[in-house]
Write a structure and sequence with these properties.
homodimer, alpha+beta, Uridine Diphospho-n-acetylenolpyruvylglucosamine Reductase, domain 2, Uridine Diphospho-n-acetylenolpyruvylglucosamine Reductase, domain 3, Alpha-Beta Plaits, 4 domains, seven-stranded antiparallel β-sheet, five-stranded antiparallel β-sheet, 17 helices, binds flavin-adenine dinucleotide, FAD-bd_oxidored_4_C (chains A, B), Glycolate oxidase (chains A, B)
């Protein structure tokens, strides 16, 4: 039976592009979720076209094989972790930038293209795809799957705001195209938006039209230490309201700052006494097409930060600015190396961040668990590393933190997704009416339920 | 039976808020669609709460009564035109601004609030809801229904990009809340985005969280006549690429310009010889929080327009700028008064506008029909008034124009919606696989099919 399936799948993609059994490398058994056990899939197929993807789904339907899509496997929710009896569809061969269309400010790409490759290609045209999750080996298809965000979302929005159209294969094996090289459309339900963030449970994406923005020639990074965390969080809405439109607006707590600068061997020029008195930092990235305007804005920002209670304000030079941003991007690896037991990314209304963080830290404190982190403060998106070995206590702690976030009008995940890792919490905390509605919507795309079972809903 | 239904509906909203039979004023029999015959609904109910809306839907389900939602009835697609046997749910009593939340830059509103009311309320806080369709008596619920756009969409996006959360009642009578006071979320399917643009066919919206932006203190409007239409359209992508980020980027053809300035009795200071040689105009709105930057940008824009072939460049003074924008907003009324037989708003990739317009005008020419207009050029959204009395010829002409738009990678409607007016064309031109998928999605929300039958899909 398994051999029969393997033979059928190999017929679709060619024997060279189908792995099964022990021939499947360990890397395909997981994504970057910290808590899930790696699970080698029954089969890995590497299709080259949408038609091949459709062929794979037809075989999977016929044999009842669960299907998991995989981009680069850098996701943090376990949504690309396959089932042992399942088929992993890896998009690594569908990795071309098909077109950079400067007239319409879009790029047309295959889903497996990495962000670094797309960044290089758009740079040639003076344009950029502005979704920058910390990990540039991630794929555009993975961005679509998780509705990825990253540091620049405060200015440019998340994946949802930067994807204009898709080609996708439904669970039924039917191929559709949605949206286009257009920024607005009012002609039927928005299937593009519905598929974005669906974590491979509605359709497999085989082509993506992404929106591009001009690259701005001049940039600077400002670092402001604050003596207390509440003040840094209270500063955030004021900076957003200022109209300075930062491209980056991050908070980093002192433990996280110590860890990431230590790992990166990065000296930021903050004097010892300021550093020792600082509970938290704000990192503000500014960009402008005009150097004079940039400098004028940085001055306004500096004054504003002073008024808002910053202990000091540092305009970092190019080298250390880049290194600090890179160190922030690698915060996940630092947390992992430090032994973090989980990493979460609750989103709450910007003005509720202080209350949320206070509650989350208190919940950790009561259980002698570490709750430290940083976050896309401009978006109210708080990234916390959880240090708590006992899985039952951790479960309870996470539940309390997620419930607090939801209670404050937020959601369990701002950008990483629910996946396998947070599914149980999601099903407990989300309105059952909406869960049932989402299940019906899923059946509209995937009547037999072959797409990523165990993720999000089921 | 009808009396029984009326009694049941009156129980839900109170007798004072239920009209039926001859007591229904004519205004409820139509929206602003040019082609459809007015049809007085069986009942008009004016609920005050989400619970009352749910109660109405339960009665409607029980008695198989089709339900149409109505905001202000300014829509152009016939989507708020009720069925003679149906219930019109008017949101005129649910018209409060519940909160302007400056910390999170959002407003929480009831769906029946008009754009002018919301504009006044947000102005007090120095903020703005940036969706400005030409008609400010329109409601926010209607914006959500049609995914309205308007002139400022080139900078701020359409309704879809400015609505963060909803309260809505499904066809089943269940009440849900989606999204929140947050700009990103990756926790399940995006129901907010799915409901936006669904023209009252999936759910009735009972509360809306809209995103607000800072009001910019300084603004100017630039008018540039061009001797040929292709050149004006070719200029558009260049202006978008310039990074000047205009708030308005409209093209207006010479006939339309003559008509709207005549109606508004507006003298723009364009000398006769320039006006006579001009085929088309570009109107560019610029705003900035800083007056010096605004002026510098206008200078750059002026030079760029010169390079791109503008016959001349006029920076309009405040009074005539405002009047020109108002006249452009009223283009629909001007077209209607001039006897236009239909008004359409095809969207195509920005770089394909010239080709699209050429084909549309040629298609009109072959049938001795008038095809003139203006459009949100920055978005590739072309608004055309169609002068063609014979309904069969007109149908054929529209079909050809829509097919051309779709062929070029666009869609039948960029912001007005499909409604009743364009449904037949939509069903003919859209991929049947997507139509069937949308029908299944609709059934997930509205299993019995009471919500706006005859609109969009069915
Ligand atoms: C160091 C580090 C930092 C990170 N920082 C951020 C951050 O700041 N912001 C952020 O949002 N994320 C961040 N991430 C998470 C991750 O990079 C993003 O979620 C990214 O979008 C995943 O891309 P991927 O190609 O690795 O996807 P994968 O992990 O392969 O897959 C992610 C999801 O998308 C689905 N999928 C993949 N391809 C397709 C397809 N073609 N069709 C349908 N579904 C598909 C998968 O099934 C899965 O559900 C970080 C990760 C790391 C390791
Ligand atoms: C002069 C003029 C200029 C215009 N210019 C533009 C323009 O530039 N751009 C643009 O996009 N539009 C434009 N329009 C069209 C119109 O103003 C917009 O579509 C507006 O959003 C309609 O709002 P309304 O309250 O009048 O909606 P209605 O006409 O009452 O309804 C529109 C749709 O929304 C649904 N709906 C209404 N309320 C709800 C609710 N609470 N829950 C669920 N569904 C609901 C209705 O069923 C219908 O499908 C213009 C119209 C006119 C008359």
């Amino acid at each position: 039976m398994a051999e029969d399936v393997a033979a059928r799948l190999a017929e679709v993609v060619g024997a060279a592009h189908l792995l099964s059994g022990d021939a499947v490398p360990e890397d395909y058994a997981h994504d970057e979720e910290l808590t899930g056990e790696p699970r080698r899939p029954g089969y890995v197929a590497k299709p080259a076209t949408a038609e091949e993807v459709a062929g794979l789904l037809r075989v999977a339907t016929e044999h009842g094989v669960p299907v998991t899509a995989r981009g680069s496997g850098t996701g943090l929710s376990g949504a690309a972790r396959p089932r042992p009896d399942g088929l992993l569809v890896s998009f690594e061969r569908m990795n071309a930038v098909l077109e950079v269309d400067t007239g319409n400010h879009v790029a047309v790409v295959q889903p497996g293209v990495t962000l670094s490759e797309l960044d290089a290609r758009t740079a040639e045209a003076g344009l950029q795809y502005t979704v920058y999750p910390g990990e540039l080996s991630a794929s555009v298809g993975g961005n679509v799957g998780s509705n990825a965000g990253g540091m620049r979302a405060v200015r440019y929005g998340v994946t949802r705001h930067n994807v204009l159209g898709l080609q996708a294969v439904l669970g039924t094996g039917e191929i559709i195209r949605t949206g286009g090289r257009i920024t607005k459309i009012s002609s039927g339900y928005d299937l593009t938006q519905l598929i974005i963030g669906s974590e491979g449970t509605l359709a497999l994406v085989t082509e993506v039209i992404v929106r591009l923005h001009p690259r701005l020639a001049h940039g600077a990074t400002v670092l402001a230490p604050f003596t207390d965390l509440d003040r840094v969080l209270a500063a955030v809405p004021r900076i957003v309201a200022s109209g300075l439109a930062p491209t980056i607006l991050e908070y980093i707590d002192n433990l996280t700052m110590a860890a990431i600068t230590h790992t990166a061997q990065l000296a930021l020029g903050v004097p010892d006494e300021v550093r020792e008195a600082s509970q938290s930092y704000l990192v503000v990235g500014m960009e402008n097409r005009d150097a004079d305007r940039l400098h004028a804005d940085i001055e306004v920002l500096g004054e504003l930060l002073g008024e808002l209670g910053a202990a000091d304000v540092y305009v970092l030079d190019g080298g250390s600015a880049r290194k600090l941003i890179e160190a922030r991007e690698k915060a996940f690896w630092t947390a992992k190396a430090a032994g973090a037991d989980d990493v979460i990314d609750v989103v709450v209304p910007r003005s509720a961040m202080a209350q949320f963080l206070g509650a989350a830290r208190a919940a950790g404190h009561r259980r002698e668990a570490g709750v430290i982190g940083c976050g896309h403060a401009g978006d109210g998106n708080v990234h916390l590393a959880i240090f708590c070995k006992d899985p039952d206590v951790r479960r309870e702690l996470l539940h309390e933190i997620f419930a607090e976030g939801v209670e404050l009008g937020g959601a369990i995940s701002g950008e990483h997704g629910i996946g396998r890792a947070k599914r149980e919490h999601f099903l407990e905390l989300e309105d059952p009416v909406k869960i049932e509605l989402m299940r019906r919507i899923k059946r509209s795309f995937d009547p037999v339920g072959i797409l990523n079972p165990g993720v999000l809903l089921t």
